[in-house]
Amino acid sequence: MAENTTRLRADARRNREQIIIAAREVFLEQGLHAPLEEIARRAGIGIATLYRRFPDRHTLVRQVALDNLTLVGEELDRATAAHPDAWGALVQLVRRLVELRLSIVMPVLLPGLEEDAHGEGGTLKTRRNQLFEQMEQLTRTAQQEGRLRQGINPIDIWLGVIKLSRPLPVIGGELNELITNRQLELFLGSLHATALDTSEPLRRQPLTLDDLDRHLKMAE
Amino acid sequence: MAENTTRLRADARRNREQIIIAAREVFLEQGLHAPLEEIARRAGIGIATLYRRFPDRHTLVRQVALDNLTLVGEELDRATAAHPDAWGALVQLVRRLVELRLSIVMPVLLPGLEEDAHGEGGTLKTRRNQLFEQMEQLTRTAQQEGRLRQGINPIDIWLGVIKLSRPLPVIGGELNELITNRQLELFLGSLHATALDTSEPLRRQPLTLDDLDRHLKMAE
DNA sequence: AAGAAGTGGAGGGAAACCCTTCGGTTTCTG
DNA sequence: CAGAAACCGAAGGGTTTCCCTCCACTTCTT
Fold first, then answer.
1. Chain A: nearest CA to B60, how far in angstroms?
2. Residue from A170, A31, A190, A158 nearest B162 by CA
3. Nearest-by-Cβ selection for A202 from B108, B179, B185
4. What is the rounded (10 degree) CA torsion for B59, B62, B67, B71?
């Protein structure tokens, strides 16, 4: 979304955005190997347009990842600005992220992309880590408020959001939305602190960023 | 798993079971349109064997669904037998179902299958409803014990289990297991009753079986 | 209104997938 | 333990899906 974009013609820029939005959804639903023609179709454009803007799949994936990162950052700022309490901000953030159908791309695919992708503001990985620290601060504060359950991690929240957002196959879009919204409420409940916090700590350790990166690296 | 099976040769029966297990996983991961060759590969058999046993995709899907239903029933019985309290049984049940990687197939696909599929013990739909009632009883009891959160539904639990079980694409199997197990703990936390129950009821209504069926019917 | 920039669709080549045929192997039965 | 029946996997032809480029046409910009 940087220097190249500004020189694009108006309609071209519009199309570019539509492509990224469509790609975000399709990647979320079908994974990173989804047919590009499906993305083009859903963006309401021809396949050639997609190829001109993004020469290959890899480029598109990277842009979507970058876009997602930016989106999360914006929503995080917006949420903290709108709520004086960290818990309130966190809840709004999670709701918004699910609403945006944030794709799988964000935490994944960092292994192969670290070195070559510098957006405006550092590499993908740098920006992700920065975002992670912001969220860590938010969760810590919410825990000090006594409203977020102890032992919960930004990673827990990210992965939870991703699992929530991911629609079930075969089922229609409308039903999937109902399901997601309902499960979202349950998920928020699981984040909420209760009197049981001390008596029943969570059984498993939360995952860390390092855990993710290590495993993803291994999976090539 | 009925009359036809008993007359199968030993190796054939073994293979048949492997196919169903593999199909359960693949359908869970990729949806009902997953390539049959992938299923055969994962079952460790040739494609011809799969086709001989299940003439077309529809037959296979139906058998997997039936198998899933049976599996859930067994686990439910086992869980209630092992725990005097309903909450304990419920927790064991959920853990086991996630472990089994129960496929998406169960609650879905009833629209087209109701009429022609009679296993031993009624149609698919009948058995599903029967299972649902069993679970409803279990959840009601757990709520009377004051351990299961008010307003929660068997459907909530089923769908939660499905969302949990479904692996994220691109990520390796091992990491996916870590993620699933961690999110499972969070999910169980969201089912647990707390002092907040009365002060903060869940925002959204739970879905009912009718909701599911209606929407699935519409999506043809 | 003219030129630059952008667009969609057709289509060839490659890959994935479906499903059947067939020579060889394993299990069952007497 | 041997013959028959049942079963198996690999190879392969036909079809569909997908990738990606070329080019005549359309839409912006000034």
1. 16
2. A170
3. B185
4. 170
Q: Other C-beta atoms within 10 Å of B120: how many? A: 10
Which nucleotides of strand D lie under 7 Å from a protein CB?
6-12, 17-23, 27-29
Structural contact between residues B153 and B206, judged by C-beta atoms closer than 8 angstroms? yes
Taking phi first (over 0 means left), then psi (-120 to 50 degrees means alpha), and beta for anything else, what does residue A146 get?
left
Residue B114 near residue B35 (C-beta atoms within 8 A): no
Interchain pair B190, A190: CB under 8 A: yes
User: Of A26, A24, A206, A220, nearest to A132 (Cα)?
Assistant: A206
pLDDT tens-digit map of A131-186: 899 999 999 999 999 999 999 999 999 999 999 999 888 777 888 999 999 999 99
pTM recorded for the entire structure = 0.88
From the CB of residue B9, how many other CB atoms can be counted at a distance below 10 Å?
A: 8
pLDDT tens for B87-117 read: 999 999 999 999 988 876 655 555 555 555 5
Contacts of B179 in chain A (CB under 8 A): 159, 163, 207
Helix (H, G, I), strand (E, B) or coil at A4: helix
Nearest protein residue to nucleotide D20 (CA to C1' distance) is A51
Query: Residues 156-185 of chain B: which lie with beta carbon within 7 Å of strand D?
Result: none
* Nearest by Cα to B30 from A208, A71, A33: A33
Cα distance between residue A135 and residue A137, in whole Å:
5
Structure tokens at A70: 């930016």
In the structure encoding, which two tokens stand for residue A95, read together?
């709701």
CA of B178 to C1' of D13 (A): 44
Contact partners, residue B190, CB within 8 Å, separation at least 6: A186, A187, A189, A190, B149
